[in-house]
């Protein structure tokens, strides 16, 4: 089963995609996580992309498509995957269509106001977990519950970068939905609910439409 989870930044798409992946025993593939890993470890790719990430801009197509292809070509993706953060524009969708057929495209809907509110309180950990000062605080202030590392605010969660990322989502990513709608594999869920309620909506979509 090949699933794409869409949603504006702050909609919780990463959290939901991971939950869905775990539940269905599929790999969770996040282009944002892959790029952040390379940036943090200062790999050759990381050096090339760090500027784009910190400013909330899209990494150029050739690099992104190459990263996605090499990840989706790994043996663990043979039975499917849950994709988060890709495709984000027409060229990426065309590339994805040339290598895989998708079964579900699910968008977690959230207003810009709510997205900004959520992102402004978000704290990240280098182990990949993320928290929110109001909705999902760590047990000990500023420390990760899982690995104990100090939490930080992502560069791309600064106000200017947030605005830029939301604008890209509206102008470049949302227009792709029409294509999934035409293929009858497109579903919307309400992202303003709790993590568990959003998860239940997505599970319902998958279980009622599995072919
Ligand atoms: P995310 O965690 O999905 O919000 O991604 C964080 C950042 O990684 C984005 O703001 C972009 O700079 C970069 N990125 C992630 N996915 C893509 C993509 N599909 N195309 C281009 N850049 C991406």
The total beta strand count reads 7
Regarding CATH, which class?
Alpha Beta
| Relevant CATH superfamily | P-loop containing nucleotide triphosphate hydrolases
Mean pLDDT: 94
Count of helical regions: 9
Order of helices and strands: EHEHHHEHEHEEHHEH
The proportion of residues in beta strands is 5-15%
Strand order of the largest sheet: 2-3-1-4-7
The dominant shape is globular
Which structural category do the helix and sheet elements fall into? alpha/beta
Radius of gyration: 16 Å
Name the bound molecules. adenosine monophosphate
End-to-end Cα distance: 10 Å
Biggest sheet descriptor:
5 strands, parallel
List keywords for this structure.
alpha/beta; 211 residues; 7 strands; binds adenosine monophosphate; 9 helices
Explain what you see.
The protein is an alpha/beta fold. It has a single domain (2-27, 74-209), classed as Rossmann fold (3-Layer(aba) Sandwich). It is built from 9 helices and 7 strands, in the order βαβαααβαβαββααβα. The chain has helices at 13-23, 31-40, 44-55, 61-72, 90-99, 112-120, 159-173, 177-182, 195-209; strands at residues 2-6, 28-30, 81-84, 104-109, 122-124, 130-132, 186-190. Helix 4 runs parallel beside helix 5. The longest helix is centred in the C-terminal third of the chain and has 15 residues, at 159-173. It is globular and about 45 Å long. The termini are close together. The relative contact order is 0.19. Residues 9, 31-32, 35, 52-53, 56-59, 64, 85-86, 88, 92, 156, 165 line the site of adenosine monophosphate.
């Amino acid at each position: 089963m090949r699933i794409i989870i869409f949603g504006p930044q702050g909609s919780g798409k990463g959290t939901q995609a991971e939950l869905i992946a775990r539940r269905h025993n599929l790999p969770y593939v996040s282009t944002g996580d892959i790029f952040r890993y390379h940036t943090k470890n200062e790999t050759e790719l990381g050096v090339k992309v760090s500027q784009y990430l910190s400013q909330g801009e899209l990494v150029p197509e050739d690099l992104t498509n190459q990263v996605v292809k090499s990840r989706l070509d790994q043996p663990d993706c043979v039975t499917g995957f849950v994709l988060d953060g890709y495709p984000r524009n027409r060229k990426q969708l065309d590339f994805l269509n040339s290598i895989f057929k998708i079964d579900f495209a699910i968008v977690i809907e959230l207003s810009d106001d709510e997205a900004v509110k959520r992102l402004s309180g978000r704290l990240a950990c280098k182990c990949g977990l993320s928290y929110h000062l109001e909705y999902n605080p760590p047990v000990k202030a500023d420390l990760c519950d899982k690995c104990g590392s100090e939490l930080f605010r992502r560069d791309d969660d600064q106000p200017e970068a947030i605005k830029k990322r939301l604008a890209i989502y509206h102008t470049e990513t949302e227009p792709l939905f029409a294509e999934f709608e035409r293929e009858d594999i497109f579903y919307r869920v309400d992202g303003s609910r709790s993590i568990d309620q959003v998860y239940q909506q997505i599970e319902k979509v998958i279980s009622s439409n599995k072919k």
